[in-house]
Amino acid sequence: MPGLDFTSFLSLLIISVVVSGILHFGAKYYVLPGFWSFCSKVVVGYIGAWLGTPVFGPWWEGVNVGEIFLVPAILGSLALVVLAVDAAKIMKGARGGAS
Question: CA–CA separation, 7 vs 32, rounded Å?
Answer without folding.
Answer: 32
